[in-house]
Amino acid sequence: MNPNIVVPPEQSNMRILVTGGAGFIGSHLVDKLMENEKNEVIVVDNYFTGSKDNLRKWIGHPRFELIRHDVTEPLLIEVDQIYHLACPASPIFYKYNPVKTIKTNVIGTLNMLGLAKRVGARILLTSTSEVYGDPLIHPQPETYWGNVNPIGVRSCYDEGKRVAETLMFDYHRQHGIEIRIARIFNTYGPRMNIDDGRVVSNFIAQALRGEPLTVQKPGTQTRSFCYVSDMVDGLIRLMEGENTGPINIGNPGEFTMLELAETVKELINPEVEIKTVENTPDDPRQRKPDIAKAKELLGWEPKVKLRDGLPLMEEDFRLRLGVSKKK
Ligand SMILES: NC(=O)c1ccc[n+]([C@@H]2O[C@H](COP(=O)([O-])OP(=O)(O)OC[C@H]3O[C@@H](n4cnc5c(N)ncnc54)[C@H](O)[C@@H]3O)[C@@H](O)[C@H]2O)c1
Ligand SMILES: O=C(O)[C@H]1O[C@H](OP(=O)(O)OP(=O)(O)OC[C@H]2O[C@@H](n3ccc(=O)[nH]c3=O)[C@H](O)[C@@H]2O)[C@H](O)[C@@H](O)[C@@H]1O
């Protein structure tokens, strides 16, 4: 090929690895990446919390490949970009085998950085707002170092992601790897596991089954919920842009868990009861992203409000649970 011909970036073919691509956010990201005919997408996943079903429309597609692989083992392939998502995200699942969660975050991220270094790929890590722990600053800007319990039951995830961020920056400084770090705040949408255990999927499944909505005590704790299409848009902008991050990607609309339960009840099943149940240790009391950096550096902000996103998720849950809407 003539070396003087410069191929503009939007014209070049890209081979993209998505680890954890059979999961909730990963499978939506794959859908978006596959829309670009210049992209070839490879998913690696161990199916711990993900499923082939989430990718069924792409299985057999000539630009798509699915590999059963655990990221705690080395991976030798040739790719241009790596979206590194592999890690259980629901507290129930990441606490199920905490040692494995740490291995996934630390050894898994080391392996993906090793791959990025060998082939010269750009790598994006999906970190989390949990790096801020139980935050003492509100809302949380990226400059906040957090308030994390290093020995608690959530630490395998929180500290695991903090080490993963450290590894990303050390590979960047020491080996010149091109890195991107997204700090994702609570994301919801179609394809979440019905029994995933996270609050939005729990409340929607409970409302559709006519079971009480289980608000964990005190119920005044807050979260800020981002719809999955907004999240995927933010991740792609971060990968394609020039900033390493970390950058918060989330929706600043903040709700108490009681408010969320009231909203789900009103929109999905006004007859359902709301009951208060025991909470788990170290549950953060408040969480809201400061997204000034995402707005300025990525030109990104979320578009889908909670009241518009919940019905889209309801539709998907109705189909999967076989519960039709009353006329
Ligand atoms: N959804 C959120 O609200 C949220 C918030 C903050 C950060 N994140 C991060 O985003 C990423 C995706 O989250 P999600 O909500 O889609 O979760 P998910 O559990 O649906 O997806 C995670 C995927 O990773 C796979 N996986 C887990 N361990 C693996 C391993 N050792 N090797 C290979 N694959 C493995 C799972 O099988 C699953 O398909 C995670 O890194 C998570 O920490 C998510
Ligand atoms: O977004 C993030 O940064 C992190 O948020 C979540 O962790 P968490 O906010 O604890 O998620 P949930 O399990 O959905 O809990 C949210 C709140 O709802 C409450 N909850 C949960 C479940 C339930 O049935 N009822 C209920 O009131 C919890 O006590 C908590 O206060 C994700 O699961 C993590 O993967 C992610 O990294």
Notes on the structure:
It catalyses: UDP-alpha-D-glucuronate + H(+) = UDP-alpha-D-xylose + CO2. Pfam families: GDP_Man_Dehyd (PF16363). The chain has 327 residues and is α/β, with parallel strands linked by helices. The protein has a domain at 12-188 and 226-251 and 288-303: NAD(P)-binding Rossmann-like Domain (Rossmann fold), CATH 3.40.50.720. The protein is built from 9 helices and 13 strands. Strand 5 (122-128), helix 4 (155-175) and strand 6 (179-184) form a beta-alpha-beta unit. It starts with 13 loop residues before the first strand and ends in a 6-residue tail after the last helix. The mean pLDDT is 95. It binds nicotinamide-adenine-dinucleotide (NAD) and uridine-5'-diphosphate-glucuronic acid (UGA). Uridine-5'-diphosphate-glucuronic acid binds at residues 89-91, 128-130, 184-186, 198-199, 202, 214-216, 221, 223, 257, 279, 283.
List the helices and strands and how they pair.
Blueprint: E1 14-19, H1 24-34, E2 39-45, E3 64-68, E4 81-84, H2 91-94, H3 98-119, E5 122-128, H4 155-175, E6 179-184, E7 187-188, H5 199-209, E8 213-216, E9 222-224, E10 226-227, H6 228-240, E11 247-249, E12 254-256, H7 257-268, E13 274-277, H8 292-298, H9 306-321
Parallel strand pairs: 1-2, 1-4, 2-3, 4-5, 5-6, 6-11, 7-10, 8-13
Antiparallel strand pairs: 9-12
Features:
9 helices, binds nicotinamide-adenine-dinucleotide, seven-stranded parallel β-sheet, 327 residues, binds uridine-5'-diphosphate-glucuronic acid, alpha/beta
